[in-house]
Amino acid sequence: MAVNETPNSLSSAPTLWDLLARRADLTPDRPVLLQDDRSLTFGELRARAERVAAGLHDLGVRPGTVVAWQLPTRIETAVLSFALARLGAVQSPVIPFYRDREVGFALRESKAEFFAVPGTWRDFDHTEMARRLGAKGVFEAYDRLPEGDAGILPPPPADGTTVRWIYWTSGTTSDPKGVLHTDRSLIAGGSCLAHALRLTASDVGSIAFPYAHIGGPDYMVMLLLYGFPAVLFEHFALPAALDGYRRHGVTVAGGSTAFYSMFLAEQRRQPGSPVVPSLRLLAGGGAPKPPEVYHAVVREMGVQLTHGYGMTEVPMITMGSPGDTAEQLATTEGRPPSGMEIRIAEGGEVRLRGEAVCQGYLDPAQTAAAFDEDGFLRTGDLGRVTDSGHLVLTGRLKDVIIRKGENISAKEIEDLLAAHPAVGDVAVIGLPNAERGELVCAVVEQPPGAGPLTLKQVTDHLRAEGLSVHKLPERLEVVDALPRNDTLRKVLKYKLRERYS
């Protein structure tokens, strides 16, 4: 495998473990993960992952064993994930700020036999939650991982087309959906992302988003194919994180629109002086990007910004490239790689077929509904393809709010708020926001005689119901009557978006 291997040579590396093993053979002493004052080389990552795989084997983890993990973005998390890949276990990553409702559902639906947690992290006791939920095989993996003699390990898995990943997305229903991925689909997504960004071995990347997000393996594939390191941030907040970016000479940063806006805000506090001198590129996806954000970043920060389109079901769909024009980078989601087919169906829905597309969902009924008769995934997004092959998204069929790159089900929040005595009916909508992509707004119609309702009362109620903090409404509007159609009296959310945007 060449140092800058392209997607065309993926047939020689069918599993994630193959990628790591080959990279460790090529550049064993080159760093791959940097965090605070710690670092791990490609060779060390392979060696430690094998020892941890042996420790997990001693615990009873075997090929096909379902292991859920809810861990922050740390070196240990990456090591654990590669150890599980070495064993051929089925991994079910869970975003670390999910709480009882989402975590309990993921554990039950995946039938997880083991659950790795960080203990008490950011003032929340994950171990206690795991016990409360009756999780099996709970072990803490924040700064210590089980290790053993790698000599006892069976051969690594050879088939990259077996489902070994279960990711979770809210979709449009109250409960999350378990998205089924293979090593092959994750490799396809990550390799195409790297190819679009035109990265090299001299770059220094950064992972400031949850490693449990589908973007985690996307990014790791880039590092393994192109042989450059990334700085890990357990908790991303500016200006506190700037020292890490500067100290390690990060050249590529980002994550989603929220990240761009935060960097831009810091730049505006010190105009004329680069906030991260080594930075040359911001890149990301997962949320709408207003064109004015692109222009402001280029103008004020003096770096390029490339934005893309992905989802848990398809981690890499399109991506802007540094070679695109300013107009294309500002107003489109980029172009698809050669292995991704985009079909604009009747009505404008974007549909997808290709190696990066998931195998479906844990629920067979959801899988059947998600793919059309030609095997294209129905995204629920609306869009068009330009003459140059760039994708422009124009809206969504799905009633999903995308806040900081994470999907939030409006129905889940509505269902919980319906139980509040001061709520007669409610519609939850996403409103455009330059920092977050979208913010969550609850529009409430109160029953007769109800007292005044405040945003704090709404969020306190939802917290008590176990809703994750990142899903809480940030805005409340109380109306005399929600707008409805004249047939089934369905709430017309587009009118609410028009009114409050």
Automatic annotation (TrEMBL):
Tell me where in this chain the AMP-dependent synthetase/ligase domain is found: 21-362
Descriptive protein name? Cyclohex-1-ene-1-carboxylate:CoA ligase
Domain annotation AMP-binding enzyme C-terminal: ranges: 412-485
| Transmembrane domains' residue ranges | none
Q: Which domain of life is it from?
A: Bacteria
Q: Which InterPro entries match?
A: AMP-bd_C, AMP-bd_C_sf, AMP-binding_CS, AMP-dep_synth/lig_dom, ANL_N_sf
- The reply on keyword Ligase is yes
Could you list this entry's UniProt keywords, alphabetically sorted. Answer: Ligase
Question: Does the record carry Ligase as a key word?
Answer: yes
Which PROSITE patterns does its entry note?
AMP_BINDING
The family line of this record is: Belongs to the ATP-dependent AMP-binding enzyme family.
Q: Which GO terms describe its molecular function?
A: ligase activity
